[in-house]
User: Which sequence fits this backbone?
């Protein structure tokens, strides 16, 4: 009976751990997401990610990065989403040359 209980407990723990891993992966702010046409975006290099974040923060102020991705808009290269100290969220479009093109409240 104890062996059966241990096996069931191990199976439940394995499922819970696997579910936690999937949940953690689904909220990674640096995941490269799919595109509108069903393709996938090419991954950002750490250097490009860092430069895009630095440009965004230089424009709107310090905050917590919630997402960085390639922008689907052909006029900009990167999209950086930040949560500012006052709790508001802002989306910043950054060009290929790492110049801020626009900023808007993030819904």
Assistant:
């Amino acid at each position: 009976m104890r062996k059966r209980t241990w096996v069931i407990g191990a199976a439940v723990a394995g499922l819970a751990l696997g579910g936690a891993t999937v949940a953690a992966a689904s909220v990674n702010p640096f995941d490269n997401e799919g595109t509108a046409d069903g393709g996938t975006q090419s991954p950002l290099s750490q250097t490009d990610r860092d430069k895009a974040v630095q440009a965004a923060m230089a424009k709107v102020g310090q905050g917590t990065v919630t997402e960085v991705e390639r922008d689907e808009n052909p006029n900009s290269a990167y999209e950086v989403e930040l949560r500012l100290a006052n709790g508001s969220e802002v989306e910043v479009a950054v060009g290929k040359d790492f110049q801020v093109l626009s900023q808007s409240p993030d819904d």
Summary: Residues 2-26 form the longest helix (25 residues). The mean pLDDT is 75. The beta strands are 63-70, 78-84, 89-94, 100-105.
